[in-house]
Design brief:
It is built from eleven helices and ten strands. With 262 residues, it is of the alpha/beta class. Strand 1, helix 2 and strand 2 form a beta-alpha-beta unit.
Length: 262
């Protein structure tokens, strides 16, 4: 084969490799939007810090993309993800409805618990459901594990659910005895250090396996190829230990390891 032919074959192969590599990387041709929500250790409006803020910073660093990071209520985030007006959010869980409009890149898992007032006389989850006078407080648009979701849905049908936009209002209505229980997860643990809250409540565990949480990606805003590229970024953060190190800033090493290695 003539030298020029070898050169042309080499050039074509190089272009193909470059195209494949580019296809595997997130597309940074436009500004992208990512929304956080104010929720315990995931993100605090007061401090501007949290696990999801650290994850967002690392996504920006690794991808080289411009991500405009905002903070908004969780219900609004899901609406914008569905419409395609928002590209990303973090620490999301899926269900059949969300799978229709969102893709996910998993980076941690955790269990859920029922924080219940001691004076409610509840020692089992069934005790709470069987007492019509007891009300449950939840954050609007939040979903949990299967057992917790069934509890929320049944009590909602009985008009025994009080909805809130965030954690702090829920803690207050629990202390005021306007609701008698709320659903919590490990990111809410620091609030339990409050002496008044700790003295008045106990914790019951839902008998569900840990639920996966991940980067939420709008299917209307991002192609399947781009979703795969962002999954690769998140998977890389887990594989090289970065994700676990982020969680170790907020949790004991054994809990951080359990949450990020699943």
């Amino acid at each position: 084969m003539r030298p020029i032919a070898w050169f042309m074959l080499f050039a074509i192969a190089a272009i193909a490799v470059d195209a494949a590599v580019a296809a595997d990387k997130p597309n940074c041709d436009r500004p992208l939007g990512l929304a956080l929500h104010d929720h315990g250790l995931l993100y605090s409006n007061q401090t501007g810090e949290g696990i999801d803020k650290d994850v967002a910073d690392e996504l920006i660093r690794r991808s080289g993309c411009r991500l405009s990071v905002t903070v908004m209520p969780r219900a609004r985030i899901w609406q914008l993800i569905e419409s395609g007006a928002l590209d990303f959010s973090l620490s999301g869980i899926t269900n059949e409805e969300r799978d229709r409009f969102a893709g996910f890149a998993w980076y941690f898992s955790n269990k859920y618990y029922l924080l219940v007032r001691k004076d409610a006389g509840v020692t089992r989850l069934a005790d709470f459901e069987s007492q019509p006078g007891l009300k449950l407080g939840v954050i609007r648009s939040f979903r949990y594990g299967p057992t917790a979701n069934r509890l929320v849905d049944r009590l909602d049908a009985e008009r025994r659910v009080s909805y809130s936009t965030g954690l702090d209002p829920l803690y207050q209505v629990l202390l005021d005895n306007r609701v008698q229980a709320m659903i919590i997860e490990p990111f809410d643990y620091p609030a339990l250090e409050n002496a008044k809250l700790r003295a008045q409540t106990s914790i019951l565990e839902f008998e569900d396996p840990p639920v996966r949480h991940g980067l939420i990606m709008s299917k209307k805003a991002l192609s399947e190829q781009q979703q795969q590229a962002w999954r690769a970024v998140v998977d890389g953060m887990r594989a090289d230990g970065t994700m676990q190190r982020i969680f170790e800033k907020y949790f004991a090493p054994d809990l951080a390891r359990a949450m990020t290695q699943f």
